[in-house]
Specification:
Mean pLDDT: 96
Helix content: 25-40%
Number of strands: 24
Strand order of the largest sheet: 8-7-6-3-2-1-18-19
CATH class of the largest domain: Alpha Beta
CATH superfamily of the largest domain: Ribonuclease Z/Hydroxyacylglutathione hydrolase-like
Shape: globular
Strand content: 15-25%
CATH topology of the largest domain: Metallo-beta-lactamase, Chain A
Distance between the termini: 40 Å
C-alpha cells in the first residue's frame, strides 16, 4: 500500500490492484483566481497521475475542480456521497462525466483486491468523510467534514484501528470577510479554534498518525493577499501538538509529493515550505501573475444588468418561506459590483424579490452592503454559485453590528437553495428522508447542540471532542 499527498486536498491511494484519488484539484487556481495550492503542484506529478477511481468529498471547487477532473479524463469512474440532493451528480453530468456512482451514508464499495472504501456523510450542506481500507491499513480522510460525538463514534466503532487520519485545520468560511461599520476592531472569527478542533477530532479517532490536510492553500489575488497571514499552517498544527504534549496521534507534516509506503515508511520533502512562507508566496505570485492579470482584464469587461439580477432574485425569493422572507422587510441588501474602475450599484429587496438601480450609496442609507465583482455575480446567477462567493473571500460584507445577522441568513439561504433544500417541501422527498434516516446520529447531535445552546448559552462543541486539558472549557 502506498499513499501520496498530491495537493491541497488531493490524496492518491494505491496498491497492486487499483488506485483511488480523492478531491483532485491539481491545476491552476479556484474561486476566481483567489485560492492556489500551496506549495504548488509540480507538472511532473500532475502528468504522472492516472487513478482508476476518483472520490469527491463534496462540491466546493477546491475539492470538485472541473479543469482538474477533465485533465484526468472523462472516462474515470467518479464516486460521490449520496446525500439529500443530487447536485454533485448533476454538475458532473453537465461537464461530461457519465460514469458516476453514489454511495449512501455508511455504504462500502470494493474497488479491487484488498481495497475497500466506505463513505460517511456530515453536514446539512452535504460533506463527507471516506474510510479507505487497503492491504491491512486504514485511512480516514475527514477532509472538511466536522464529524464529532456520535457521528465520529459510528466511524470509529465500525473501523476501530485507524492508522492515518487526514483533516482540515484552517478557516475556509466567509466570517473574515466582514467589515463592521460601528465596531471595526471586532473579531468575528477565532482562527485559533481550527487547530484545537483538529486536535480534538484526530485524538478522538485513536489514529496512529494525523496529517494536517485540506488547508494547504494560499491567496494570490490582490483582493485576498491579506488573508495569507491568517492561514493556520501544518507547522502551526505541529507546534500546537508539541506545546500541549500530545503524542498520539503523531503529527506528520506532508506537502505535495510527500508519500507513505508500507515497505519504506514516510518519504518527506527536505524543503521547508513554511519557514519563509511569505517570500515563497511572493515568488509564487510573480510566476502566476499573467493568469491574475488575464482574470482582471476579463472581469473588467463584464457587467450585470438590473434585469438579470431581478430575474434571479424573483425566482430565488419565491422559494423562501414567508416567515423568513419577512425578516428582510425594510432591510434591503445593497450590491456594489466592480466592473474595472466602474461600480454598478443595485438594491435588492429580498422580501419582495425586486431589484432597483442606485446612483450612489452611503453607510447610513445602505447599512447592508455586499462588495464584489460583477463578473463573479454574473457567474453566480448563471451557475447557482452564490454559496461559493463567501468561500472565495473575494467579497466584503459591510454592515453595522446589529445587521450582520441578515447577511448570514442570506448566505445560509443561498446554500439551502443551491443544495435543493428550498422550497422546504424538498426536505420531504424520498431521497432526503432516506438520507436522514441513515444519518440519525447527526440529527441527534444537532438536537444536543441546540439544547446546550438553549440551556447553557453555547453549543458546547468541546463536549463532543477529545481536547487537551488546557483547551477544555
Amino acid at each position: 500500500m502506498r499513499f501520496q499527498v498530491i495537493s491541497h486536498a488531493g490524496l492518491l491511494i494505491e496498491n497492486q490492484s487499483t488506485s483511488l484519488m480523492c478531491d483532485p484539484w491539481i491545476l491552476g487556481s479556484c474561486y476566481w483566481r483567489s485560492w492556489w495550492n500551496y506549495p504548488p503542484v509540480s507538472e511532473a506529478l500532475v502528468d504522472a497521475l492516472n487513478p482508476e477511481f476518483i472520490y469527491l468529498t463534496h462540491m466546493h471547487w477546491d475539492h470538485f475542480h472541473g479543469d482538474s477532473l477533465r485533465k484526468l479524463g472523462k472516462d474515470k469512474k467518479i464516486i460521490i456521497p449520496k446525500g439529500n440532493n443530487n447536485r454533485i451528480k448533476r454538475d458532473l453530468n453537465k461537464i461530461g462525466f457519465k460514469n458516476v456512482v453514489e454511495l449512501k451514508h455508511g455504504e462500502s464499495l470494493e474497488l479491487g483486491e484488498n481495497f475497500k472504501i466506505t463513505s460517511y456523510q456530515y453536514s446539512v450542506l452535504l460533506d463527507s468523510a471516506l474510510i479507505i481500507e487497503v492491504d491491512g491499513k486504514v485511512l480516514l480522510n475527514l477532509n472538511d467534514s466536522k464529524h464529532m460525538g456520535p457521528t465520529l463514534k459510528q466511524i470509529t466503532s465500525c473501523h476501530p484501528s485507524i492508522d492515518f487520519v487526514f483533516r482540515s485545520h484552517s478557516s475556509a468560511n466567509g466570517r473574515l470577510c466582514f467589515e463592521i461599520i460601528d465596531d471595526p476592531d471586532v473579531e468575528l472569527d477565532d482562527i485559533n479554534q481550527y487547530i484545537a478542533s483538529f486536535a480534538g477530532t484526530v485524538c478522538a479517532t485513536g489514529a496512529k498518525y494525523a496529517i494536517p490536510f485540506a488547508s494547504n492553500n494560499c491567496f494570490l489575488h490582490s483582493e485576498v493577499m491579506r488573508f495569507n497571514k491568517l492561514v493556520q499552517t501544518p507547522k502551526l498544527v505541529e507546534q500546537f501538538f508539541e506545546s500541549h504534549h500530545i503524542d498520539t496521534p503523531e503529527v506528520k507534516v506532508m506537502v505535495s509529493g510527500d508519500s507513505y509506503d508500507s515497505q519504506k515508511g514516510f518519504q518527506l520533502s527536505n524543503y521547508d515550505w513554511f519557514a519563509n512562507r511569505e517570500i515563497e508566496i511572493e515568488k509564487y505570485r510573480e510566476r502566476v501573475f499573467p493568469s491574475l492579470q488575464n482574470q482582471a482584464e476579463k472581469e473588467a469587461k463584464v457587467g450585470v444588468s438590473r434585469e438579470q439580477l431581478e430575474n434571479y432574485f424573483k425566482k430565488f425569493t419565491k422559494t423562501i418561506p414567508f416567515f423568513i422572507r419577512y425578516k428582510f422587510k425594510r432591510h434591503p441588501i445593497t450590491y456594489i459590483l466592480k466592473k474595472g474602475d466602474e461600480e454598478l450599484l443595485f438594491e435588492v429587496d429580498i422580501f419582495h424579490g425586486t431589484v432597483k438601480t442606485l446612483k450612489d450609496y452611503d453607510d447610513e442609507r445602505n447599512p447592508l452592503q455586499v462588495h464584489t465583482s460583477a463578473f463573479m455575480i454574473k457567474q453566480c446567477i448563471a451557475l447557482d454559485l452564490f454559496s461559493h462567493l463567501s468561500i472565495s473571500k473575494r467579497v466584503c460584507y459591510r454592515a453595522y453590528k446589529k445587521n450582520v445577522k441578515y447577511i448570514r441568513i442570506l448566505d445560509a439561504l443561498f446554500n439551502f437553495y443551491e443544495y435543493d433544500m428550498l422550497p422546504l417541501h424538498r426536505l420531504f422527498s424520498w431521497r432526503s428522508l432516506e438520507t436522514w434516516s441513515l444519518r440519525w446520529r447527526e440529527l441527534w447531535l444537532f438536537m444536543c447542540l441546540l439544547r446546550n445552546k438553549g440551556f447553557e448559552g453555547s453549543f458546547g462543541i468541546d463536549k463532543y471532542m477529545k481536547l487537551p486539558p488546557s483547551e477544555q472549557k
